[in-house]
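Lesson 9: reading folded outputs for more than one chain in a single document. The general rule is that every protein is listed as its sequence immediately followed by its C-alpha cells, and records are never interleaved. Here is the first one.
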Amino acid sequence: MPDPAMRVAVGQFHELTDEKLRFAAQIGVTGIQMNNPTLPGDTHWEEADIRRLVEKVEAAGLVFEAIENVPTHFYDKAMLGLPGRDEQIENYCRTLRAVGRAGVPILGLHFMPNSVWRTDRRAPGRGGAGNTRFEMAKVDGTTKAEWRRFMPTTLGRAESMPLFDTAEGVVSAEAMWANYTYFMDAVLPVAEEAGVRIALHPDDPPVPMLGGVARIFKDPADFKRAHARYADSPSWGLDLCLGCCSEMPGGAANVREMITYFGPKGRIFYVHFRDVQGTVPDFIECFIGEGNFDPGEVMALLRRSGFTGFLLDDHVPHMDDDTDWNHRGRAHAIGYMQGLLRMAERAA
C-alpha cells in the first residue's frame, strides 16, 4: 500500500522495463506510476494484465501508485456524446474493476478528446535545453489539416488522435459538460465499489476551445463546479498538474487556489510538479524553479493543506544528450522535489 505521507514517485512511461525500475531505485523514490501502459485489449483492460505490472513493481521493492489514462479510443465517444458511448462506458467500468482487483488505487482521467496541444516541441530554454511551447496565435487561422501537428503524444503511448466534428463543426462547452456528467454519473459508483479513485487532470492548454472541441477544465471554477456535483463520492478527485494550473490566466495564483481549496478536502490524489513561464495564450515549459510559482512555497502549501499523496515528475526540458524519456531532465526534477520535501518536513 502507498505510504500515508507525501512522497515522490517516478512515472510518465508506458513500458515497464527493468531499466525504469532500476532508475527509480537508484534515484531514491518509493513508487511507480504508469501513463497509459501498453496492455492487450482494444476496448478495455483485463485484471491479469494489470496485475503482472503490479507484481513486477512490487518484486523490485516499489509501490505501484497509479495508472494515468487509458487509451483515448477507449472512451472518445463518451467524451463527445457520440453513438456507442454507452458501450464504451460499460467497457471503462470493466477496466475500473480490473484496476481495483489488480491492486492499483488510482486511475487518472483526462477529458480532452483531442489531446494535449503544443505549437513548438523544442523551444530554446535555459542553457539551450529544449522546451515545449504553446502560442495560441499559431493555432488561430490554421486549417483543420494543420491541427494534427499541434497534438503531441504526451498522454501515453502514441495513438492516432482523431479530429472531431459535429454537424455544426464544434462541440460546445455545454455539450462537453453534459458528456462529462453523463460519464461520471455512470462510472463513479463503479469506482467506489472497486476501491479506485479517479484523478481528473486539467486541460492542457487551458483555453476555451481547440480543434472545434470546448475545454471544460481550464480554470479553478471548473473544478469547483465538478466537485460540487460529486462531493459525496470519495472516488472523485484530482491529478493536480501544477503546470496546467500555472498556464491558466493568473499563473501562480491558480496553483495556490487549487491547493488551498482542494487539499483540505482530501481531493488532491496526486500532483504533477512542473511549471511554465507565461500563461495562455503564450507559455513555455521550463525547469522547476524558473517558472511562475515559487516551488518552495508550493511544497510547503501542499504539506499544510493536508496532502498525503505522491508527487510526480511530468513534462521536463530535454537536456543535451538526453534520452527520449528525458532521464536527465527527470532526474533534475525528482532531485529538486526530494530536496523541497525534506525542507518542508523539517520546517513543519
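And here is the second record, again sequence then C-alpha cells.
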Amino acid sequence: MTGTAVGVGVLAVDSGGSGLRVVVADPQRGPLAQRESREPVHTGDRGIDPGHFMAQLVPMVRELTAETGVGALSTAAVGAAGLATLGDALRAELPGALRREFGIRSVALVADAVAGYVGALGPCPGAVVAAGTGLIAVGTDLTCWRRADGWGHLLGDCGSGAWIGRAGLEAALRAYDGRPGGSAGLLACAEEMFGPMPGLPGKLYPRPDRPAVLASFAPQVAARADGDPVAAGILGAAARHMAESAAAVCPAAGEPRVSVTGGLLKMGDPLLVPLREELARRLPHAPLVAAAGDPLAGSVRIAGDLAAGALTLPSDAAMLSVVTGAEG
C-alpha cells in the first residue's frame, strides 16, 4: 500500500494472537502504508499490557509517517483481541499515550470481533460469525451490539475448528472402543496424526495450546466428509451451531446481512453447503454475503469515519468506546 503524502492522516491497528498490524491512512482515500509485528502484545495481571503495546507500535508508526509523508495523525482506531475482558488497562492508558507520542486526540478502542464485523459488512445492520480455532458471532441493529458464544473450547466455541476437531477425535475413540457413533476412517486418521489412541489423552490434556491441537484435526474431518457419514454429521452439526449463533445476534427486522469469516472457510463445500442451508432456514430475511474485508480493514473504516465525524456504530463499554481530547 502506497500513496501520495497527505497533511493529516489516521492510524488503524489490528492487535491479535499472531501479532500487531498497523496502517496509516488518508481519511478519504484509505490505506497508504502498512507495517506488522509477529509478536503478540503481552497480557498479564492487568490484562493487555499498554506498555508493551506502545513499545511495538511507536517505531512502526514513526516509520509509516516518514514513508507516507503524513504530517500529523488526528485519529486512531485500535482493534484488539481480548479487549472486552482484558482491556481495562488499555482503555485507561492508551488514549493518553497516543496523544503524547503522536498528538492523536480521538481514539476508538474496538473489540476484535467488532473490527471484524465492520471489515466484513461495514456500518450496516447484520451479523458476522468469526470462525477459526474458536468461534464468536457479533450482530447489531445500529443501536446496540450483541454477541453469542466465544466462550472458549471448554464451555463453547460451538462449531469452531477446535469443536470440530474434538468431535472428530471423539468419533475416533468411539471406533477404538467399539461404541456406537464411531468412525473407522477418523480412527485411522487420528492414529496417523497422534499415534495409538490410549496415548491421546496424555498428549492432549497437558498442552497449553490445546484448542489449536484440537483444531489441527478438523481438516481431517472435512477431508473424509464425502464418504463418511459420521464426519459429514459432525460438519452438519457445526453448521447448525454456527447458524444458531448468527441467529442469536442478527436483527429480526429490517434488511440485515450475514457474513462468515475466518480460517474455517478453507474447509470448503463440506462445511459451507450445510452452513448455507442452515443460515437460509434460520435467517431467511438476511442474505449471506462475502466479507468485504478483514479486521484491519474494519479498523481503517472506523478511524476514517471517526475522523470525518460520521461514525454511526453504537458505543459499548466493552465492545466499542471512543475517547476524544485524550489528556496525556
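What the second record shows: The first strand starts at residue 8 and ends at 16.
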